[in-house]
Amino acid sequence: MKTIAVGQALPELAFPITASAIVAGAIATNDYENVHHDKAAAQATGVPDIFMNILTTNGLVQRYVSDWSGPSARVASVEIRLGAPNFVGDTMRLTGEVARVEGREVDVKVSGRNQIGEHVSATVTLHMGAEA
Hints:
Layout: E1 9-16, H1 19-28, H2 39-44, H3 54-69, E2 74-82, E3 91-102, E4 105-113, E5 118-127
Antiparallel strand pairs: 1-3, 2-5, 3-4, 4-5
């Protein structure tokens, strides 16, 4: 059984921001806004390149926490807030910390930072399975 305590840090995950990751995430989430796949269209809005959509970010946050918690845990909820965009050529570094443990329910605070600043802050609530 995994021991989980408030203040416990999750290992960092470095996620390279590539054009392929941004476009694939947008397509997978049915987000066809041109700023997520067309560099010229994105630049016309005043940004340097295409940027990641919120649904891809949400998926990466859930993957990060689920990889740590293991297959017996279930994501119950995610509260997410976006900040600095994830542009091609950067790296998002996800870090996390256990913020609350009540029985089998666990809250994990997550931060994802890139060169510009904090891209995402989130709280993921997990329902831990019997093996956690």
